[in-house]
Write a structure and sequence with these properties.
- This protein has helices spanning 13-23, 35-44, 61-71, 86-94, 107-137, 148-161, 178-188, 209-214, 232-235, 251-263, 289-294, 300-306, 320-338, 347-355, 361-375, 412-426, 431-438, 442-452, and strands spanning 5-9, 28-32, 49-53, 76-81, 99-102, 168-171, 196-200, 240-244, 265-266, 275-276, 280-285, 309-312, 344-345, 380-381.
- The strands form 4 sheets. Strands 2-1-3-4-5 form a 5-stranded parallel β-sheet, sandwiched between helices.
- β4 (76-81), α4 and β5 form a beta-alpha-beta unit.
- By secondary structure, it is an alpha/beta fold.
- It has 4 domains: 5-131, Rossmann fold; 142-312, P-loop containing nucleotide triphosphate hydrolases (Rossmann fold, 3-Layer(aba) Sandwich); 318-391, Orthogonal Bundle (Helicase, Ruva Protein, domain 3), CATH 1.10.8.60; 412-452, Arc Repressor Mutant, subunit A.
Length: 456
């Protein structure tokens, strides 16, 4: 069984011996007669708790405490004083001391305070271990952020995480890492040891989305479970919900979500009793919600409730500084997985990676490097290993199909109309498939067909 290590810092030899005698039965003890000696031990030994006298020869207890905090570590500090020196006690508490004791020491009080301090330390360590497990499980240590844009996104996420329930809107193309940022916020918040529930609003049947989110009571509809079912909001109580592809929510569900954001409560489908839960809502979208508002597919009042804190993740093609670090990161990751020995990327291969449009963003990069490491052998990734990238359907190369703005300008409405007509022709007039080709929702496609008077 682990024995906590306690450092006793006092210049009174009699008190040193007395405390050592009392505490050594249950703990490993170390003794220092001055602040300087205490700091030497603190730097060289693992210490869990410090009993620190305020009045010491040389540097006093307050200065010793300050220097211990600078050194860092998890040790809990309990101050001791022979005087009710309120100013010194307040200073030490502000600097992070756990508690203080007045001499002559009451042994029962001493034992109670040490028990409380060590219990507090134990909880902190358990919390940190949970954090480490969460980081490992969801690869949060793997976030590559060399570009200024990604560094800004992470700084914003870190700031937002400090609030308890601020609603967040994360915008970015598919594959840019919106879920990673959402998990980063959850991990850095005080909710990290509670559930993180990811809901893809576009993947749930539109008829069942309300029952999935809010649950349903028994007998609510044919085909439901006899005893009813808890919804995702209830399952995430205390934690965080990521509503991915939020733009796909039907208007009726948008109303219920708005009500929940205002009241932090909801009615299950078929239920008459309101349920209260404590969750942070993070919404993510790869489409413009402002466009949805203009096209009457997304509620303006819901948009403002979601857009309290906003993080925009730029596409990989706009984050050149991240491309090679990401490629090297995935190379090392898949070296380990496939037991390969790639050590770098040749200059010509680097140029190919930097020039590629990365329409699939980080997800595409991951898949490309995984394929190379799996299929090829060698010590460097070479241009020949990346030949397949040129054959990717629909990939736009800088010298190929990428649209360049003419010096004379262009008419954006005419260009949009032309692209919609091409998409409809390619999809045989099917609005849904045409919308997919252009990366927009079906309601947006219908709106624009009507706007431009396109005959299908």
């Amino acid at each position: 069984m682990y024995r906590y290590k306690i450092l006793i810092v006092d210049d009174d030899k009699l008190l040193q011996a007395s405390l050592d005698d009392i505490l050594s039965e249950s703990y490993d003890t170390l003794i220092a007669g001055s602040g300087e000696e205490a700091l030497r031990l603190f730097k060289s030994r693992p210490i869990d708790l410090v009993l620190l006298d305020i009045r010491l020869p040389g540097i006093n207890g307050i200065e010793t405490l300050r220097r211990m905090k600078e050194i860092g570590g998890e040790a809990v500090v309990i101050m001791m004083t022979a005087y009710e020196d309120v100013k010194s006690v307040i200073s030490s508490m502000k600097m992070g001391a756990f508690d203080y004791l007045v001499k002559p020491l009451d042994i029962e009080e001493l034992e109670v305070i040490i028990d409380k301090a060590l219990e507090n330390l134990k909880l902190k360590r358990e919390v940190e271990e949970l954090r480490r497990q969460f980081v490992k499980e969801y690869n949060l240590d793997d976030i590559v952020a060399q570009s200024n844009a990604m560094k800004l996104a992470l700084r914003l996420a870190d700031t937002i995480a400090r609030s308890h329930d601020t609603t967040v809107l994360i915008e970015g193309e598919t594959g840019t890492g919106k879920e990673v940022i959402a998990r980063f916020i959850h991990h850095r918040s005080d909710r990290f040891d509670k559930p993180f529930v990811n809901i893809n609003c576009g993947a749930i049947s539109k008829e069942l989305v309300e029952s999935e989110l809010f649950g349903y009571e028994k007998g609510s509809f044919t085909g439901g479970l006899q005893e009813g079912k808890r919804g995702k909001f209830e399952a995430a109580d205390g934690g965080t919900i990521l509503l991915d592809e939020i733009s796909e929510l039907l208007p009726a569900t948008q109303v219920k979500l708005l009500t929940f954001l205002e009241e932090k409560a909801f009615y299950p489908v078929g239920g008459s009793a309101k349920k209260h839960v404590d969750v942070r809502i993070i919404a993510a979208t790869n489409k413009s919600l402002e466009d949805g508002i203009r096209e009457n597919t997304f509620r303006e009042d819901l948009y403002y409730r979601l857009n309290v804190a906003r993080i925009t993740i730029p596409p990989l093609r706009d984050r050149q500084a991240d491309i090679l670090p990401l490629a090297l990161f995935f190379m090392n990751k898949f070296n380990e997985k496939f037991r390969k020995q790639f050590r770098g990327i040749s200059e010509d291969a680097r140029k190919l990676l930097l020039d590629h449009p990365w329409t699939g963003n980080v997800r595409e990069m991951r898949n490309v490097i995984e394929r190379v490491i799996l299929m090829e052998d060698g010590h460097e990734i070479e241009p020949g290993h990346l030949e397949f990238m040129k054959k990717t359907p629909g990939a736009l190369s800088p010298s190929g199909n990428k649209i360049r703005l003419p010096s004379t300008g262009l008419n954006l409405d005419e260009l949009t109309m032309d692209l919609i007509i091409q998409a409809l022709e390619r999809s045989g007039g099917h609005r849904g498939r045409a919308a997919k080709l252009l990366g927009i929702s079906r309601p947006t496609m219908i709106y624009r067909i009507e706007k431009y008077g396109i005959k299908v």
